[in-house]
Amino acid sequence: MPYDKVSDLPESVRDNLPKHAQEIYRKAFNSAWEEYSDPDDRRDDASREETAHKVAWGAVKRSYEKEEASGKWVKKD
After folding, report:
1. Max Cα distance, the chain (Å)
2. How many helices (H) and strands (E) does the chain have?
3. 3-state DSSP call for residue 74?
4. Alpha carbon distance 77, 68 (integer Å)
5. What is the CATH number of domain 6-75?
6. Which has the least CB within 10 A, 10, 14, 21, 44?
7. How far apart are CA 24 and CA 14, in angstroms?
8. Per-residue pLDDT reduced to its tens digit, 12-71
9. Residue ranges of the domains in the chain?
């Protein structure tokens, strides 16, 4: 279930990530959704959706980090 727009993302993503990070998440999720359509390409018994969410969070974490004090996601320096 790829996401057409940022507003379609799960609340947990929309409510926590800055807009730019949401766009990274959306693009990475959609790409992974296509790439891991074959169950043999996924690790363990992970579902297609679970795999796509893991890839998307990984993509966000390359550019953003969660501040310990505030719990907010901020762009890495």
Report:
1. 40
2. 3, 2
3. strand
4. 16
5. 1.10.1740.70
6. 44
7. 12
8. 999 999 999 999 999 999 999 999 999 888 888 899 999 999 999 999 999 999 999 999
9. 6-75
